[in-house]
Predict the 3D structure of the following.
Amino acid sequence: MIAPFTYHAPPMRVHFGPGVVARLSDELTDLGLRRALVLCSLEQVHTGQTIAQALGERSAGVLAEARMHVPVEIAQLARDRAAELGADSCVAVGGGSAIGLGKAIALKHDLPILAVPTTYAGSEMTPVWGLTEDGRKRTGRDPRVRPVSVLYDPELTLSLPIPLSLTSGFNAVAHAVEALYAPDRSPIVSLMAEEAARAMIEALPEVAADGSNVDARSKALYASWLCGACLGATTMSLHHKLCHVLGGTLGLPHAPTHAVVLPHVLAYNQKSAPEAIRALSRAWECSDPAGRLWETAGLLGLPRSLGELGMAESDVDRVTAEVIADPYANPAPVTRDGVEALLHEAWAGRPPIT
Ligand code: NAD
């Protein structure tokens, strides 16, 4: 039986392929835009400047100030700079941090964003923004912050360090996994999620073997597009809630935390999400997707314990309390005992209990 659903197709253009970033100037013209402020992090200033040079008079300048979780001071600086320079749009080049900075400007000045993602985090496909003030991160949804155009150029991901590529890939897979059991899932998003999970788990060992392999990088970036589309289209569950609290409260690193937590949450939900388990079993040709994820993380040399990421075991109670105080929708009931047990296993780096 096809369960009732609602599907909203977002108005957005996606270009994909090696060298596609060269289309950026034409893309601005097609959209009727004249002066784009190029946003990136300091580490990627060279890429930002190269793009600005190629844009010529269509570039309003480069702001290399993007930081993780978008501190409000940086957001304010970027909004002021965009206004001073007369920018009518932003080109955000980089991962979730650069795209998040573009979103912070869009939220205030309504400037359209063109995104050039260079990690697999997926922010470019979502209407979700985040801002951090005094150590607290606020998030919200607003259709104005979803980029109008996204250019996925695998050549720009060749420089992404392998460890970051692999954890970022797991971060992306988490979006697909949770889309498969989301309360607002729909047939087209489930198709995307299954294909996304398949392609990413196939691509990551190839990227690990040779980070300069454009085919492997293309497959991973293609998968990350689909994973991001899943994130933008559905409501996330226990996994994203846990990572939000672990990142926000304890300051654990974003992508590695996703890599450690995901197998445990999938195991937690296994009995309550049979459709999702069937889809992932098909995608990964296995009978135990949670175990398969955990083994893959081990084979790729990824962190598998929260202890390794700097969490103290004594923080389990605090994190559990925050998670159950305001849980996200989840297929299995979110109980204190359940979350506590999950966190102890993930802290110690033991295999997920299915
Ligand atoms: P990031 O954007 O902070 O990038 C991590 C580091 O990698 C940075 O130093 C960056 O300069 C560098 N880098 C990125 N691409 C590179 C490349 N190709 N070559 C060399 N270096 C490169 O990390 P991220 O994991 O992409 O994003 C995490 C942030 O995005 C978090 O703040 C998270 O909350 C947010 N996020 C938001 C959404 C959303 O929908 N709003 C979705 C996913 C993530």
Q: What stands out?
A: Residues 162-348 form a domain with the Dehydroquinate synthase-like, alpha domain fold (CATH 1.20.1090.10). The chain has two domains: 13-157, 162-348. The first strand starts at residue 13 and ends at 16. Residues 41, 43-44, 68-69, 94-98, 100, 118-119, 121-123, 126, 128, 130, 156-157, 159-160, 164, 168, 231, 254-255 surround nicotinamide-adenine-dinucleotide (CB under 6 Å).
